[in-house]
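[09:14] KT: can someone run the structure on this one? pasting the chain below
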Amino acid sequence: MSATAETKALTPPDIASRKDKTPLVCLTAYTTPMARLVDAHCDIALVGDSVGMVLHGLPSTLGVTLDMMILHGRAVRRGLERALMVVDMPFGSYEESPEQAFRSAARVMTETGCAAVKLEGGESMAATIRFLAARGIPVMAHVGLTPQAVNTFGGYRVQGRGDDAERIRRDAAAVAEAGAFAVVLEKVPEGLAQRITAEIAIPTIGIGASATCDGQILVVDDMVGMFTSFRPKFVKRYAELGEQAEAAIAAYARDVRERRFPGAEHVFGDAPKGIKGGQAA
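[09:31] RB: done, structure tokens below
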């Protein structure tokens, strides 16, 4: 028997049980190397449809396909041992009907090995969440600013201010009652996030919400400074890897043009006498 205990992966019930406890740490991941880094420190690794903007250069998440999510989901799965893997359902893959949502989610889970899916929408998606949960598909919900509805909202605007707060409260309550194991609250006023967190029985995961939420999530490329096209107010930069990478590329280009790279330590000499093809004669 191995002396090293097998790592136990977190499950949706584990996440649900963290209500009002130590905050959940969540980040996105789209590749195997990043998944390995996230896995060492996070409770949830979300294969977000933000991959369309971050890695594929799309103007929004609307162009992301189910095949793209599955491709990146497979890559992330290879890098995880402990963190719960959740995959975003892309626009157009679940809104038509609960049956469509089930077919899409079942394919995602089967082909990526994820433990749960995430979908956007509140009251309008409650019946779908209930349908999926009853058929063995754990669902993380997402209310407030839902990026797939960016055209309806007229941009990436704060949701739930003034009289609109009641709509977001109803959405959060509806997804909790329908069986979601957690809900993302995106870009809502802090007071509203605090109120929802106190009112519903499942963990709230904030992004531009409140430190009192049961957890926090950011797009990892935002957080480490790799995605620099724009910077949402709710993002804290913990590193500036984009700037460092650009400086490294510039230094490499200078070395190549000035013939400083490759140096003697980077090239191979002829085989020593008596050696043929790198092997003893």
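[09:33] KT: thanks! The chain has a mean pLDDT of 94.
[09:34] RB: yep, looked fine to me
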